[in-house]
Amino acid sequence: MDGEIVVGLDIGTTKVCAVVAAEDELEGINILGVGIASSEGLNRGVVVNIDKTVSAIREAIGKAERAAGVTVENVIVGIAGDHVQSFQSRGVITTHRDGVITQHDVQRLLEDTTHVAMPADRKILHVLPQEYIVDGQDGVVDPVGMSGVRLEANVHIVTGLVSAARNIYRCVEKAGYSVADIVLEPLASSYSVLHQDEKEVGVALIDIGGGTTDIAVFEDNTIRHTGVIAVAGTKVTDDIRKGLGLMRDQAEQLKRQFGLALVDVNQPDEVISIPGIGGRQEKTISRSALSQIIQPRLEEILEIAGIEIKRSGYARHLGAGVVLTGGGSLIPGTAQLAAEVLGVEARVGLPTGLGGGMVKEVSDPKYSTAVGLVLYGLNPEVIRREFLDTNEKWTGQQGQLDDSGSRGIVERMTRWFQEL
Predict the structure, then answer these.
(1) DSSP 407
(2) Does residue 44 contact residue 7 with C-beta atoms inside 8 Å?
(3) Between the CA atoms of 364, 369, 374 and 379, what dihedral angle is there, to the nearest 10 degrees?
(4) What's the rounded Cα separation, in Å, for the pair 275 and 298?
(5) Within 10 A of 319 (CB to CB), how many other CB atoms are there?
(6) More confident position, 396 or 155
(7) Which residue ranges make up each domain of the chain?
(8) Model confidence pLDDT, tens digit, residues 102-120
(9) Would you tell me the crossing angle of helices 248-258 and 233-244 to the nearest 10 degrees?
(10) pTM of the model
């Protein structure tokens, strides 16, 4: 093993996944260990039971440690949930008298963009530069080293609830590990499944997880919009459970083994036998009837994702269409359904950009976020240049939402219902 060891921890609604990776001497990324544990301590991406979440974290990281033969101390953890919000901001500063822009100037500028009115119960997760403007000249990607007196930037700011992030910190630390960084999950997934040319021509990433569906929109190699919606794979499972009168585990197994996103009229229909509950006789259901339960919910998820993409203003800029990932994209026919619902090209994205080790084990959409987190940690030149370091301890007293914050939520909900 060569180089620094990085651990990505994806704490999801249905599973906790840990990936241990290191960079070799050829700058390839080797996957050393993978661990996965079922999760019952979260709801829609937010911790609701500390003890269950701590237990799942220990189990997942323990499995990854044993597979890698290493001892884990620090983890890079993902954050999602419908509490995550984003907005655009702008900042302007003047440079020093010699007129050469330095990295310190860029850092001051990014700090300036964060001086916005925000409720006391929210904190900034990421500051993502869209473009820099030097003395009125826009379209600048990296202003360091350029001559100029006035430096401006348009940025995309991602915020999250203090309590949600603090609970993630608490769970990880209670499990015996420390948090090296906290990263928005759609951002992490984008590093593992999107190609650079897709980011250039325009692409939307739709990560269908268990509790949340995460969205990231890219154009000109820059992230333009992020969003999280609270309808995802567990809703599909609930529909099957309620529609057929099954236990949750049975419904989940049925979805994974026989689920179809589209009714395939060209194939002969298959009859599925389901064990009865409480000594009752077994049930039978056709595969097409099962898909008729699954398809409407997946259509709803994709339609809401489409509304979020339209809200970004980049719906007509998606030259590369959409890339689906996450466990919810594993249902056969999901990409075809997305193409029909959204009217653009669609494909299912698998983690890429890896060197050796347990690559086959993580070549699955459900590992996209965890693999993206280790890519984040092992490629600091890609990340640290783009993002303001906001990894501070989320401690202190949680504030209350003020009137302006309440009005903002009402206005956002009103706009959302109008778009629906």
Answers:
(1) H
(2) no
(3) 110
(4) 26
(5) 14
(6) 155
(7) 196-350
(8) 999 999 999 999 998 888 8
(9) 110
(10) 0.85
